[in-house]
Design a protein that fits this description.
- It is found in: Endoplasmic reticulum membrane.
- Its main location: endoplasmic reticulum.
- One of its GO terms (biological process) is triglyceride biosynthetic process.
- Keywords: Acyltransferase, Endoplasmic reticulum, Lipid biosynthesis, Lipid metabolism, Membrane, Transferase, Transmembrane, Transmembrane helix.
- The protein has 132 residues and is of the alpha+beta class.
- The protein folds into 2 domains: 92 residues, no CATH class; 35 residues, no CATH class.
- It has a two-stranded parallel ribbon with strand order 1-6.
- The radius of gyration is 17 Å and the shape is globular.
- The mean pLDDT is 90.
Length: 132
């Protein structure tokens, strides 16, 4: 739950399909975006692992984080937002699970492509993106 690795960026998107379902129902485009540097705006304290049992019980993330001066004020780090090309999705009144999975596959591939293309520009050549 609190696996933070300096060589890996982790996105929790595999089980989040509600937005894609809504986009399919309405025929809206989905625009993939990635923000480089957002994981450096705050630091986690070392004691977070002791909160895992409680977090699992309540099915939520309990984090003790800090920023500048030990306060919940973010560190000043440059952020690079990359906005990908809009994904045109068909309008399907009642999308099936297969329709949603196909749209999700398309979206996740676009996010991965953005990360791999622009990570060097941000100085993250050593990092990889893990989508879970």
């Amino acid at each position: 739950m609190y696996a933070i690795n300096p060589s890996t960026e982790r996105l929790h998107l595999n089980e989040r399909t509600g937005l894609l379902k809504l986009a399919l129902e309405t025929g809206a485009d989905i625009v993939p975006i990635y923000c480089f540097g957002n994981t450096d705006t705050f630091k986690l304290t070392k004691g977070c692992k002791s909160l895992q049992p409680i977090a699992r019980l309540f099915r939520t993330a309990l984090l003790l984080f800090y920023g500048r001066f030990g306060l919940p004020v973010s560190f000043e780090v440059p952020l690079l937002y990359v906005i990908g090309k809009a994904l045109r999705l068909p309008k399907i009144r009642h999308p099936s699970t297969q329709d949603i999975e196909a749209a999700q596959k398309q979206y996740l591939a676009a996010v991965q492509r953005i990360f791999n293309t622009y990570k060097g520009l941000y100085g993250w050549q050593h990092k990889s993106l893990e989508i879970v």
